[in-house]
Amino acid sequence: MLKYLLEKEFKQFFRSRFLPKFVIVFPFVALAIFPLAVNFSIKKISLSVVDNSHSPYSGRLIQKIASSGYFRITTVAADYRQAIESVELDKADIVLEIPPRFEPELVNDRKTGVMISANTVNGMKGGLGSAYLASIMTDFSAEVRSEWIQGAGGEVIAAARIIPTFRYNPHMGYTIYMIPALMVMMLAMVCGFLPALNIVGEKEKGTMEQMNVTPVSKFQFILSKLIPFWIIGFVVLSVCFFVAWLFYGLVPTGHFSTIYLFASVFVLAFSGFGLVISNYANTIQQAMFMMFFVIITFIFLSGLYTPVTSMPDWAQSVSRISPLKYMMQVMRLVYLKGSTFHELVPQFIALSGFAVFFNGWAVWSYRKRG
Amino acid sequence: MKGIVAQNISRKFGRVEALRNVSFEVNQGELFGIIGPDGAGKTTLFRILTTLLLADSGAGEVDGFDIVKDFRKIRQRVGYMPGRFSLYQDLTVEENLKIFATVFNTTIEENYGLIRDIYEQIEPFKKRRAGALSGGMKQKLALCCALIHKPTVLFLDEPTTGVDPISRRDLWEMLVKLKKEQITILVSTPYMDEAGLCDRIALMQHGRLLKIETPAGLAKQFTDALWAVRSLSMSKLLTDLRRHPQVETCYAFGDAHHVTLKAGLLKPEELAAYLAGLGHSDIGVEPITATVEDCFMNLAANKIEL
User: How far apart are CA B119 and CA B99, in angstroms?
Assistant: First the structure.
């Protein structure tokens, strides 16, 4: 009987206009476009320069800033007031003011200053922008100093050079960091949301009631809803692997088998979560809202965008309730670091716990309502 | 053994009492109608008897099985057709029928004889998706799906609501035929004219059964004189009739108003003269025999007073 119910589900799935396309298009769009759009390396910051010095050194500094690639000099203002105006008109994000005595101070006193004022409405952009600018300034002063020392025939002062090595993600690419986590989102949508919406849909249409007056048991009915989406979920995951390789040349350092193993536990947990919602919701609209509420909380606590360790203590403890967090850790660790099951036991225990919890809750809430 | 037994079934939804102490028995192979307006509690009663909903109090049996303890056994032997179309709209006519045959561990061929008469009418559209069928076709398909496993008890919740008159007749002909197969049928309808085709009917209102009778017995019990009264301006006629001191009740019934009188003293000609005096023309007054609807109105009016 289950076999026939499954046949019916697949028939309905392939007959719907939307779902089959969704399964293929969704991973492509999400993985191909999303990481490019959501990128935290800030480029092309608009800079307004007030050069009161008009000296060779100030010219050289401006040249250096312009050639760094991070800044676009959009306005050259006569004075600070005019520069601030351009910020107000949104033509500039940061103002760099070079004082009139920049060169004499630099040459004679060997000590000078510039003023950096940043528009920090977008804190990230303002903060990073002024940090970039400050580091260019440091470079500039080091450059000038070494010229003087050599020019004066003095000895080159030995200084400690720091050469960092970036392990696992050597270019510190944000995309590479994001993609494994996005795959988890995809899996959560397909295996958690779709079966739940499908069940609530049957409830809404009344077909569920019709099925209830047949010998089909509730267990068979629910399995017939879950199994197709589990299969589809793994198809989507595999499409994700392919897209990651195709667009970003990204292949896991670890084993696919590790990912599939964790994915199956995660999928079990998340479809349990979907079932809980399907027990409480009577219409698709209600189900959508409940899912939205919960999933957004899960995402913010998952470390998808911001590392969990940089959250306040209370948020870190709350983040333990997000199954997404553990699965994203697994994905990133296997993809980038090549972790094996042995190193991922805590995550495995956590995910299994979620699977037991959500499915237990689903059974309990179903009993209570039935 | 009875086909269906209900004993003092009550059910509340919040503060609304959907069913209050409903009791009745249906014999095996009987066509039993539950007649009542929307909101009378018909669907709630059906859902309780088909094991979809638990009663707050009371007990029930279907084919000798308890509706709470033996719900699995009941689900194997009843056919249920809900008031709202509840088949898979994205599957074809044939696929829907096949699903319901399969989940009952049978095949379409095995019980084809039972549904042949009605399935032949929708067979030309068997490749069409159920959602694209007309209202009457949908109900015919739903009846086929409810019958495909040869149930011993059939529950039909308002099978003719929203169906054209010809399909309504087809469906009722089918029910009368099914009775010959010894299938117990419980059918609900808001249409009083359909009641005459049932073996027995129960009149239902506000969650209570008002009366259980055969259609003929019900009409016989209607002892008051009953007249059908017509004139050109029917709405004015209704108020004028209700003002007449001898008129007990007056209800609008399609093309005529049905009037009952307080005592049998008034003659039809006298009423006609009274109406002519009020400026009515083309007046018709004739004694008629009571229909189920007259009985229902009569009973409902009395119950409200109680």
Answer: 16
